[in-house]
Write a structure and sequence with these properties.
Blueprint: H1 2-18, H2 33-43, H3 56-70, H4 77-93, H5 98-109, H6 130-135, H7 145-162, H8 167-175, H9 182-195
């Protein structure tokens, strides 16, 4: 009886932790040696995340605006600002719009750091574990804020390159739903509705 209750409790916790997580069945595809090397180099970056704006004032205005929008989802101000600085840094260094990345995170994990999807994708950007063995190293923890965002941004950049800059197709690849409009439309909708900035 106790074993049955424990199994039911474990199953319920697993279900709750994956609720509102929208990771598709992204497929592992073979990478050329040059692409693998470039992605590995991107993942191994150790610079301290910082806002990259034309001026410090502009950066502070962005941080204040985005922080206010994110307050209900991440109540702790220090955590929220660290999260936003990291999103901005990782997105910018991957050549992505940080607000697009916020829209993707909203759809993928609902800003839940420890989100796990039914197919095993992890963290804010719902990174599939096969990426660790493909471009990372075994001690990489996909629940670590910076690593998760770095992997996610690097992977989305890779898909944008494959798709010649076609954002909708790149988002479809990211989610494992290439050719289906629902996911890209949700991400772009979240981006434009909730995170658009000037």
């Amino acid at each position: 009886m106790i074993k049955s209750i424990l199994k039911l409790l474990f199953f319920s916790i697993a279900l709750l932790s994956s609720a509102n997580v929208l990771a598709g069945a992204q497929k592992e595809e073979p990478l050329s040696n040059s692409v693998r090397s470039m992605m590995q180099k991107s993942i191994s970056d150790t610079a301290v995340p910082k806002l990259i704006f034309a001026s410090q004032v502009e950066g502070e205005l962005w941080l204040k605006d985005m922080s206010e929008r994110l307050k209900k989802r991440i109540p702790d101000q220090d955590m929220r600002e660290d999260f936003l600085r990291t999103v901005h840094y990782e997105a910018t260094r991957a050549g992505l719009d940080p607000q697009l990345v916020l829209g993707l995170i909203q759809v993928e994990s609902g800003f839940k750091k420890y989100a796990v999807s039914s197919v095993g994708a992890r963290g804010f950007m719902q990174v599939m574990p096969f990426w660790v063995s493909s471009i990372g190293n075994p001690d990489h923890n996909l629940f670590h804020l910076r690593l998760n965002l770095r992997y996610g941004c690097t992977i989305l950049r890779h898909y944008l390159d494959i798709e010649g800059g076609d954002l909708y197709r790149a988002l479809g690849r990211y989610n494992g739903s290439l050719g289906q409009p629902e996911y890209p439309n949700m991400v772009v909708g979240a981006w434009k509705k909730n995170w658009s900035y000037r």
